[in-house]
Design brief:
Largest sheet: 10 strands, mixed
Radius of gyration: 15 Å
Order of helices and strands: EEEHEEEEEEEEEEEE
Helix content: under 10%
Structural class: mainly beta
Number of strands: 15
Oligomer: single chain
Distance between the termini: 9 Å
């Protein structure tokens, strides 16, 4: 996954907003166009106020990491982890971050929580080739989005009226079989 963070934030691809929400019921808006998501975040559309976008492109990460990588994008601290056991690990290269084992979920946590997040989500095979796949992004409140992604530029963006503290990225073994 490539990502940016929005404080609002964007990981490149994930973007996030760092303001505290007061509502307990979440309403998540889903975007498939980067320009539409950016416009809404920067102009306060579907949000209580306009927000600045901060980005994390993972370019400063390279190699295999023990489970749990932490970084900062502006005022947002993010942590990525492989959800499959404590011995699982992550791998980063050329601006992307992935699990080292196939079909494992990649979990991101944000501190403080954010109100917008976006990224380029995609799937790869064991040879690091980009392959078409169904990629899902889900949130703690049960909101989710599943997209058929065929390239590195598979963008999905989200705006929530409550703080997003965690998101999960899942790759489904359809149609490609084994996915990372």
């Amino acid at each position: 996954m490539k990502s940016s963070l929005c404080a609002s934030a964007f990981l490149s691809g994930v973007l996030v907003s760092a303001f505290i929400a007061s509502s307990a019921d979440a309403s998540v808006s889903v975007f498939q166009q980067h320009s539409a998501w950016t416009y809404c975040v920067e102009n306060g559309i579907l949000m209580s106020q306009p927000n600045q976008i901060v980005k994390e492109n993972f370019n400063s990460y390279s190699g295999v990491y023990a489970n749990g990588v932490t970084g900062n994008a502006g005022p947002i601290q993010w942590t990525a982890s492989n959800t499959f056991g404590t011995t699982s690990s992550l791998i980063a290269n050329s601006g992307w971050l992935s699990t080292t084992a196939p079909d494992h979920e990649l979990k991101f946590t944000f501190a403080p929580g954010v109100f917008a997040v976006a990224g380029n989500f995609f799937s790869r095979d064991a040879g690091f080739n980009i392959i078409p796949a169904l990629v899902g992004v889900s949130f703690v409140d049960g909101s989710s989005s599943v997209q058929y992604v065929t390239s590195l530029t598979g963008f999905s963006g989200f705006i929530s009226d409550v703080a997003i503290t965690q998101l999960m990225v899942s790759v489904y073994p359809v149609p490609a079989g084994v996915n990372y």
